[in-house]
Q: What sequence folds into this?
């Protein structure tokens, strides 16, 4: 199962103030591990929601609790200035690349730079774009 998580940030490190990502729980585990490796334990990362051996896809409360925990994790991560320079974080939030593709891109094996990978994912993210101010006015 994948989770759609939306976060908001005022950081200039991101092109948009809001970002929505659809990822599996295992991808969040990967991101946390990468962030921990890349910061060399200098940052105390927030925990992910605990893995529940009795987790059920039929239990809406469990799903909502996990989604809330994943959103809190990402929100805390993007508020940390040390983590904002991490390429894995930017690819995770601003592209639809798989874990394998993100790793290849970060390691220079993907054939494109991180910025190019994010830019090429832009059309897929347009539904999450912030509307221009003039479009927000009511007639």
A:
């Amino acid at each position: 199962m994948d989770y759609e998580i939306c976060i908001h940030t005022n950081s200039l490190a991101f092109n948009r103030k809001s970002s929505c990502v659809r990822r599996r729980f295992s991808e969040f585990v990967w991101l946390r591990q990468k962030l921990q490796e890349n910061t060399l334990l200098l940052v105390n990362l927030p925990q992910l929601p605990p893995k529940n051996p009795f987790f059920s896809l039929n239990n809406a409360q469990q799903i909502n609790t996990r989604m809330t925990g994943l959103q809190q994790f990402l929100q805390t991560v993007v508020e940390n200035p040390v983590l904002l320079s991490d390429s894995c974080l930017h690819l995770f939030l601003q592209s639809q690349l798989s874990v394998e593709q993100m790793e290849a891109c970060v390691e220079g094996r993907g054939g494109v730079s991180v910025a190019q990978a994010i830019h090429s994912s832009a059309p897929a993210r347009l539904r999450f774009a912030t509307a221009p101010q003039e479009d927000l006015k009511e007639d």
Observations:
- The longest strand covers residues 2-8.
- DSSP finds seven helices and two strands in the chain.
- The helical segments are 25-38, 60-78, 87-94, 99-106, 114-120, 122-125, 133-136.
- Residues 60-78 form the longest helix (19 residues).
